[in-house]
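Data deposition worksheet. Section B asks for the primary sequence of the deposited chain exactly as it was used as input, without tags or linkers unless they were present during the calculation. Section C holds the resulting structure in token form. Section D is free text for depositor observations; keep each observation to a single sentence. Incomplete worksheets are returned to the depositor.
Section A, Depositor: J.P.
Section B:
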Amino acid sequence: MPPHKARKAAVRPASVVPARNWFQFLKDQGAQNIALPVTVLFALLIRWCVGLHGYSGMGTPPLYGDYEAQRHWMEITVHLSPSQWYFYDLEYWGLDYPPLTAFQSWICGIVATYINPSWVALGESRGIETHASKLFMRASALVLEFLVYVPAVVLLFQSRRVQMSWVARQTAIFSVLIQPCLILVDHGHFQYNAVMIGFLVWAVYFAAQESYVAMAIAFCCSFMFKQMGLYYAPAVFAFLLAKCFQPRHGIVLFVKLGLAVLGTIGIMLLPWIGSLAQLQQILFRVFPVARGLYEDKVANVWCAVNVAVKLRSIFEPQSLVRLATGATALVFLPSCCHLFYMLKRADYTQRANAVKLLKYGLLNTSLAFFLLSFQVHEKSILVPLAPALLLIDDEPWAVNWFVQVALFSLYPLLFVDGQHIPYWVLAVGWSFFRSCPGCPADTQIPRTVLKLQWLSTLAMLAIHTAHALVPAPASLPDIYVVLNVTFSCAMFVGFLGYFNYRQFMCAQPDRSGSKQKKD
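Section C:
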């Protein structure tokens, strides 16, 4: 081979993903040690900057919004006994999350009382929006995320049992931590979803380590923090049950898992375990069937169908519960049955493939729940988004696209919260760091998919532009929200079909052995 051709062949082709190029540059410079600290500090900076903008219910008495709900729960848990937590003044942000959220509110309330008791004074602090109290609330969301979620993400992608190159690991960590949807909801709108999702990531990490009892405990913590964690339950159940059918685990693992689950739930319910009325009230508050099929405008099937067919006017609430439950089960069962069947085989011993199947199962099950289950919020798109991001190295273009559409679906919520600037900065930032239709063509993306992604991006931009420049007609005041819902729902249905297909296609064991991917 001529010398000039040899030199040309030796040149590594540049990635179209700027984030990957950055970590490749650090590796080439021998600066790998600064990669993770820079990523974590950058993620922290983004969250803090988003927190400088508006939040749910800011300056809108008498009920305010989710920010006030989270603060109010600190107020009641730190001043009242647990027997009153789920009964106290239900008309004003009554506690409606599982016990682990209540305990988190209690701990935060204790810290707030130590710093400034007026922030959580019972009955007197409602609607408090002082600079210092807002600083405390924003800081509490940051601290909890960096205690639960961030370490789980870092450990999972840096685990030796996850087959990825150093550059791919760092790129994945960076991508997961700067994912805009979770940042805007938790640190803009204001909630603590990162804690629930963090426990889910811990569960996947323990699955990769084959620590199945620890996995079960972590998953219990996830749904005992927020009931939306139950969206993952069928996939986790199928995975762990399949492990019990493998000869090297058997009935012993089944007993251990049962004791771990019952013990974890029992400990969290301990303050109420002696009263049936208390347990019934917790169940009633956590699963509010009376609220209806969905809340506000959420990009799921029922809300989209409601544009043409007013289901809530035709059917009784109990009939809608049965309809939603049956439809959800029908859609998630193929993924869960496939997951169980593949993993229970005695010859299916590839740990990496087993964990990848688990990620697909978590994604497909939770996306089915988001699209079809009863009482879904727009923020619940964070639940399927979490396992999708864990597949970002396996499904780069699909996950990038999924994140863009999920962010678009959250716009009506974020618009009300005054999160316009953070929304656009993070939307453009994600597209830049992770590549998008406007970036150089990625040869790994089929041309048809690239064209479809271009069209979807143009459609989202068109809806945004019309919303900004053309006032909605008086007869159709919610036209832009409805367009957002129907478009996003159609895209999510497409993603559900694609990710199910990919789960079935990745079922064959990886024949590359334990070797990691090369750069």
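Section D:
Residues 5-13, 509-518 have pLDDT under 50 and may be disordered.
Residues 437 and 457 are 8 Å apart (CA to CA).
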